[in-house]
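Structure first, sequence second, as always.
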């Protein structure tokens, strides 16, 4: 009990100061300070999501160690484990360079605790994904994850995800090929997205509206089915494991365990 209280007090003291460099840019530092204080007030009132937005706003003005720490802790409270892990990982060398051993130790401890605690998106690109570019120099294929572009790679790309809803969109140049929404579970699982060469819109000749719509519909439906199948399999396995762990033992299961195993199939 004393250790828990001491840890909570230590975290509170570490997060109180944003450590802005006031001499570098007065206006931006003042805006950063205002957003930081707003975030602290919102956090104190239990409005965690709004507090995270304010800490992120403060960080855009100035990436101070205290702001980054508050943002990491805020993401962790929201269950955004991948974002929290990334923020703690960024904070660690920053605190070390400043000689702030307390914050460095906290960032190391939390990043290690959160490591691999989040779902991941495994993107498998076709072999021809990097063969050629559009006239403007953009990649032929670009995958957007929540609006952020992920350029094609020569091998599989594994990306950390926060648990919850995400939107995936594939573009060839400026043309949308497909778009789908996924729900990432709050577990250490891998969701695979195979990008097939035959799911595309032709640029060489004009297509009829019916043919164009059909191509997009088939591509989007196929991807959604693949993702839905993968997520359903993961969820079923998790339900099965939970039922076995909580309601089974010595080679036998109680009624709740048998029901949980049956529902997972």
């Amino acid at each position: 009990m004393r250790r828990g209280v001491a840890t909570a007090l230590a975290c509170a003291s570490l997060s109180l100061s944003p450590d802005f460099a006031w001499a570098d840019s007065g206006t931006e530092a003042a805006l950063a300070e205002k957003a930081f204080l707003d975030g602290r007030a919102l956090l104190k009132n239990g409005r965690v999501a709004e507090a995270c937005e304010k800490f992120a706003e403060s960080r855009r003005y100035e990436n101070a160690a205290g702001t980054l720490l508050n943002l990491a802790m805020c993401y962790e409270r929201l269950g955004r484990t991948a974002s929290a892990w990334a923020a703690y990982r960024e904070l660690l060398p920053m605190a070390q360079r400043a000689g702030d051993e307390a914050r460095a130790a906290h960032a190391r401890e939390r990043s290690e605790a959160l490591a691999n605690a989040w779902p991941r998106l495994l993107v498998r690109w076709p072999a021809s994904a990097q063969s050629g570019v559009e006239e403007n120099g953009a990649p032929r294929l670009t995958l957007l994850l929540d609006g952020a572009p992920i350029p094609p790679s020569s091998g599989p790309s594994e990306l950390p995800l926060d648990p919850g809803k995400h939107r995936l969109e594939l573009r060839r140049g400026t043309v949308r090929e497909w778009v789908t929404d996924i729900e990432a579970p709050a577990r250490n699982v891998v969701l695979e997205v195979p990008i097939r060469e035959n799911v595309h819109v032709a640029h060489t000749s004009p297509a009829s509206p019916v043919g164009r719509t059909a191509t997009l519909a088939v591509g989007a439906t196929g991807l959604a089915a693949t993702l839905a199948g993968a997520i359903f399999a993961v969820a079923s396995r998790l339900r099965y494991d939970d039922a076995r762990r909580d309601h089974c033992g010595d080679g036998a299961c109680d009624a709740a365990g048998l029901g949980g195993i049956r529902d997972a199939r």
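Margin note: The chain is about 55% helix and 15% strand.
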